[in-house]
């Protein structure tokens, strides 16, 4: 079960409580689901009871107990515990993590992409002839296309040739607007991308570091065009993302040398819950990045995935004379899934995910 699926299950519990007359509230559009905080337990936690208590005219813990009873009816949960002022802490059955990992490995780098071909909007994406605007427009177009939108990118001016040859941007400046071959009316929108300009030429950083320097900050923030983006140490977010990916690939090679392969299965929740939450949230983050035209959200999400991945990796391979077990195979599959999400996200940003680093 992904965080998005759990969010829907929580909202279903709220709806059932409303229908039964136990709560008198408007069912919200979304329930926030996160890894448990200090004092919490289980795989995930939600503050939905605190959110609804005022409108319900009841104490948060009373609302939480009502929803706990509804959630316990779900066969996918082994336990639901109320902690603190009214947080609901949910423990999933062991097959939940295996299902998420299997889904990621089945979809590969397209995990989080829409699966029905063209299903969205025709977007006319415009940007000024400034290097950051052109790179951001290129990344926005990639993310929009991952969500089924048809995109044409035009530039108000003449982009420098090296922005295409050295930074990998793609601009459609001439020709008819490309529409998919469909037989129903097509919604269309105009979007202008105009982030704070780069204070210096990023091209000397090289394609990957330059694109990260321009895409990682929010559009309203001034990007830093410095050599820090090339430094291979933990203070560099791009290095952490690419290093985490490279480590997952190295573990797969090492496991093959030891004679075992990844196999989705139950994993211990105490150290893997943050990673599972981040992986499960990837489709929502992709959709939000597309909706709001913010590739910086995707970049920051990849940092979250990488930071949740690295603590899990030391326990993937057996130690000493230990034989590979089902737990090792399950952790290896989880590591592969994390690397897959990192590689797919970097690809949407136009950045390489090296196998060796």
TrEMBL record:
Pfam families: Arg_tRNA_synt_N, DALR_1
GO biological process, one term: arginyl-tRNA aminoacylation
Keyword annotations: Aminoacyl-tRNA synthetase, ATP-binding, Ligase, Nucleotide-binding
Domain Arginyl tRNA synthetase N-terminal per the UniProt entry, residue ranges: 4-92
Tree of life domain: Bacteria
Leading EC class: ligase
Any one Gene Ontology molecular-function term assigned to this protein's record: ATP binding
Enzymatic reactions: tRNA(Arg) + L-arginine + ATP = L-arginyl-tRNA(Arg) + AMP + diphosphate
All copies of domain DALR anticodon binding, residue ranges: 241-357
EC number(s) on file: 6.1.1.19
A GO cellular-component term linked to this record: cytoplasm
InterPro entries the UniProt entry points to: Arg-tRNA-ligase, Arg-tRNA-synth_N, Arg-tRNA-synth_N_sf, DALR_anticod-bd, tRNAsynth_Ia_anticodon-bd
Name of this chain's protein: arginine--tRNA ligase
Organism from which the protein derives: Streptomyces viridochromogenes (strain DSM 40736 / JCM 4977 / BCRC 1201 / Tue 494)
């Amino acid at each position: 079960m992904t965080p998005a699926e759990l969010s829907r299950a929580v909202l279903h519990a709220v709806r059932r409580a409303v229908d039964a007359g136990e709560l008198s509230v408007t069912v919200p559009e979304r329930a926030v689901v996160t890894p448990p905080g200090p004092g919490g337990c289980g795989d995930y936690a939600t503050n939905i009871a605190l959110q609804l208590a005022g409108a319900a005219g009841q104490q948060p813990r009373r609302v939480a107990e009502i929803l706990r009873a509804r959630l316990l009816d779900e066969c996918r949960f082994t336990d639901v515990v109320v902690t603190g002022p009214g947080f609901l802490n949910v423990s999933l059955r062991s097959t939940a993590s295996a299902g998420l990992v299997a889904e990621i490995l089945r979809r590969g780098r397209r995990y989080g992409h829409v699966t029905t071909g063209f299903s969205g909007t025709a977007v006319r994406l415009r940007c000024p002839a400034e290097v950051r605007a052109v790179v951001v427009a290129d990344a926005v177009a990639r993310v929009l296309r991952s969500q089924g939108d048809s995109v044409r990118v035009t530039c108000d001016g003449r982009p420098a040739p090296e922005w295409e040859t050295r930074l990998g941007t793609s601009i459609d400046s001439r020709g008819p607007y490309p529409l998919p071959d469909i037989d129903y009316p097509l919604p269309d929108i105009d979007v202008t991308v105009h982030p704070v300009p780069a204070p210096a030429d990023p091209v000397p950083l090289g394609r990957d570091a330059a694109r990260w320097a321009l895409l990682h900050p929010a559009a309203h923030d001034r990007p830093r065009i410095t050599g820090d983006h090339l430094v291979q140490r933990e203070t560099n977010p791009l290095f952490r993302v690419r290093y985490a990916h490279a480590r997952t690939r190295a573990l797969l090679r090492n496991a093959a040398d030891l004679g075992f392969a990844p196999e989705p299965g139950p994993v211990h929740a105490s150290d893997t819950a943050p990673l599972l939450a981040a992986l499960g949230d990837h489709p929502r983050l992709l959709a939000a990045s597309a909706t709001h035209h913010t590739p910086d959200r995707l970049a920051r999400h990849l940092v979250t995935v990488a930071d949740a991945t690295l603590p899990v990796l030391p326990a993937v391979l057996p130690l000493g004379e230990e034989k590979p077990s089902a737990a090792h195979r399950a952790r290896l599959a989880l590591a592969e899934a994390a690397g897959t999400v990192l590689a797919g996200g970097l690809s949407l940003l136009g950045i390489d995910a090296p196998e060796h680093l």
